[in-house]
Amino acid sequence: MKKWLLSLCMVLALAACDDKKETAQANAKPVIKIGASLPLSGDMAETGKNLQAAMSLALKDEQAKGNLKYDYQLVFEDDQYDVKKAISNWNLFKSVKDIDAIFTLWGTMGRVASDFAEKNKIIHMSCGLSSDVAKGFYNFNNATKPITHAEKIATFYQNKGVKKLALFYYNCAEFDDFLPLFRQKLQEKGINIISETAVNSTDTDLTIPMAKVKELNPDMLHVQLIPPQAGIFAKTLKKLDWNIEIGNLNDLLLSADYFDGAYIFQDDTGTLEFGKHFEEATGQRVIGCSANFYDNVRMIIDAYEHIGDGKALPTREEVVTYILNNKNFASSFGQYDIDEEGHINTPSIVKQLKDGKLKEIEE
C-alpha cells in the first residue's frame, strides 16, 4: 500500500514538473541573437575588447529599461582581425548559432561581410572607413564617411600651413575609398603629396623607406597604420632622430605610446554624457567605434521592439526597413543621420595627444 502511494506521488510530481516546463516554454520570449566577430586576441585585442564591452553595455542598458518583448543574446567569436577566421566565424553564426545579425569591425572586414550578409539575408552592422560596407539591402555602416574625413583633414593641414605632405598608410582595402578622395582634397587645398609609402602587414623594418622620406623634408607626415606596424614606425622615428609633426586618421597609434603631440583625426566618439557613462560602466576609455557599436546594438533592439508583437519574430526584411526609415533614433552622438543606403554618418573630429591623453581641439 505504501509503495503504491509512493509511486502515485512520484507520478503526480513528475506530471506537475512537466506542466511547469510546458508553461515555462509557452511563456518564453522569442530570442534574437547578435553575433560579433572581433579581434579579441592578438595585436588588435585592446580594440576588440573595447567594442565587446560597448555591445554588452548597450544590451545591459536596454534590459534595464524593462518590459522588452524579446530576449536578446550577444555571441562573440575571436577573429584576431584575420579575414579567413572571420569568414569561419560568420559561417558558424549562420549554420550553428542561428544568428539574426552580425557585427564586424572596419572596412576590410566589413566589405567582405557585406557580400556574405547579402547572400545569406543576415543583418550586418559595421563601423568602417568604406562606403562599400553599406552596399546591399542588409548592410549598415555606422561611421564617418570617407569624404567627410578627407575634407576635415585636408582643411586642417591647410590651416596649419602645410605645403609638402608625406603619406604612410597600411596597405589594405580599408583605405581604398578614402585615399583617392584625400588626394583630391589635398590638391584642392594646394598641398603637395611628395611621397606615398604603403606598409604591408609583413613589414618588420621601415628604416630605409622612412629615411628616404626624411631626405625629402616634408612639412608633416600623415600616418594611417595599425599595430604592430604603428609601433615599428614609432621606434624608427626615434632611431632616425626625426622630430616632425604627425597626423593620423585613427587613435590606434596610441597603443604604441610614442606619439605625444600627434594630431588624431577620428569618428566622433559620442556625447560627453555617453563617454562618462561608458568609462564608469566599463573602466575603459571611449575610442573610435565604441559609441557606434553601442548604438548598433540599440538600433537592432529598437527595431524588433517597435515592429514585433513579442510572440513571433519580425522578418529581417521588416527590421532592415524599419531601421532605414527611422530618422528619430536617439543616438549616442546627439544627432542621427542615416542615408538610403544604410550609412549612418558621424562627424569627423580632431584631437591632440598630450601626456598620454587625447584633447579635442577647438577650430
What are the SSEs and their pairings?
Elements: H1 2-27, E1 31-38, H2 45-64, E2 71-78, H3 83-95, E3 101-105, H4 106-120, E4 123-127, E5 139-142, H5 146-159, E6 164-170, H6 178-188, E7 192-199, H7 207-215, E8 220-224, H8 229-239, E9 246-248, E10 263-267, H9 272-282, H10 290-307, H11 316-325, E11 343-344, E12 348-354, E13 357-360
Helix pairs in contact: 2-10, 3-4, 5-6, 10-11
Total strand segments: 13
The number of distinct structural domains comes to 2
Question: Strand sequence of the main sheet, in spatial order?
Answer: 7-6-8-9-10-12-13
Q: And the CATH topology of the largest domain?
A: Rossmann fold
The CATH class assignment of the largest domain is Alpha Beta
How many H/I helices? 11
Taken from the alpha-carbon principal axes, the silhouette is: elongated
The CATH superfamily title of the largest domain: Response regulator
Summed over residues and divided by their number, the pLDDT gives a mean of 88
Helix- and strand-based class?
A: alpha/beta
Give me the Rg, rounded.
24 Å
Stretches where pLDDT is under 50 for at least 5 consecutive residues are 1-14, 19-25
Assess the beta-strand content as a share of residues: 15-25%
Described by strand count, sense and barrel closure, the largest sheet is: 7 strands, mixed
- CATH-level-2 architecture of the largest domain: 3-Layer(aba) Sandwich
Helix content: 40-55%
Through-space gap between termini: 91 Å
- Taken in chain order, the helices and strands follow as HEHEHEHEEHEHEHEHEEHHHEEE
